[in-house]
Amino acid sequence: MLDFISKPLGQFMYFIYNTVGLHNYGLAIIIFTIIVRLLMLPLTVKQYRSNAKLQEIQPQLQEIQKRYKNDKEKLNAEMVKLYQENNVNPAGGCLPLLIQMPILFALWGVISRPVTYMLGKGSEVQALLAAIPEESRIRGYDELSIIIYNKLLNMNFLGLNLGLVPTLDIKKIIAEPQYAALLLIPLLASGLTYLSSKLAMASSNTGAENAGANQMGNSMMIVGPLMTLFFSFQFPAGLGLYWIAGSVIQILQQLYINKHVLKKKEVAK
Fold it and tell me: How many Å apart are CA 102 and CA 124, to the nearest integer?
């Protein structure tokens, strides 16, 4: 369903891999992530500005909700009027997320099916797979088995094989020490997710009128890292590296937004 995104992303990643990526899959993922996040920075800034405006008008919004709680039609009309007067789009904060999610899912397709999307050999997958011994295959990721077995891409990044899926299977970890090193991917991914969420929460208001939003934010600070930890053990380490790179960039973006966007807005008041 997302082939129309996965195909150009795959070709773009392969271009990075062959040029500035120095024929290293991990480096290509990091550079790709930096480029995508920089392209999305204007939307991210717009998201924070929109959220800041929404927080500013919360007292007025709550007053309208209280005043017209028994008149839904008047309530909606007054809320729309308030949004228009303050140039606020209540859905404005969702736009970057709506754009990022398809890219994330499409990138998962690229990372799990590099023969199809990066090398453009989707029609040859079954023939290539047939030549690989069963014990050399990665369960659920046939194309990564092809890449690793035939050495079509350099999947080694700082001693980690990004085509493998991290595991907590003690027997496998003992038998193949590289799986012990791969545990760094889920740990870093979940830890950095927590740090970026905490930083984002610290930049929001903590007033009583935002108590509900703060409570939800605190819950996401726990749920987000746990979900990242869980999924990092379900997908190839390459996707975990994408999450790590994305979180580092998110932290840097948040520091920039706190200093140059939100603080500037407070001074303007």
Answer: 26
Q: Is 18 exposed, middle or buried (0-12, 13-18, 19+ CB in 10 A)?
A: exposed
Q: Which two tokens stand for residue 119?
A: 């090398």
Quick check: helix, strand or coil at residue 213? helix
User: Are 60 and 68 in contact, with CB atoms under 8 Å apart?
Assistant: no
User: Strands, E, within 67-226: which ranges?
Assistant: 156-157, 160-161
Residues 107, 265: Cα–Cα separation, whole Å? 35
Which of 44-58, 221-235, 236-250 is predicted least confidently? 44-58
Whether the CA torsion 260, 262, 267, 269 is positive or negative: it is positive
**Both tokens of residue 264?**
């500037």
* Four-residue CA torsion sign, 102, 103, 108, 110: positive
The amino acid occupying position 178 is Q
Instruction: Indicate the SS3 state at residue 132.
Output: coil
Q: What is the mean pLDDT of residues 108-113?
A: 87
Share the mean pLDDT of the chain: 85
DSSP class of 19: T
Residues 33 and 166: beta-carbon distance below 8 Å: no
Q: How far apart are CA 111 and CA 163, in angstroms?
A: 8
CA distance 86 to 77: 14
Prediction pTM value: 0.82
The rounded radius of gyration (Å) of the Cα atoms in the chain is 23
Burial 170-197 (b: 16+ CB within 10 A, else e): eeebeeeeebebbbbbbebbbebbbbbb
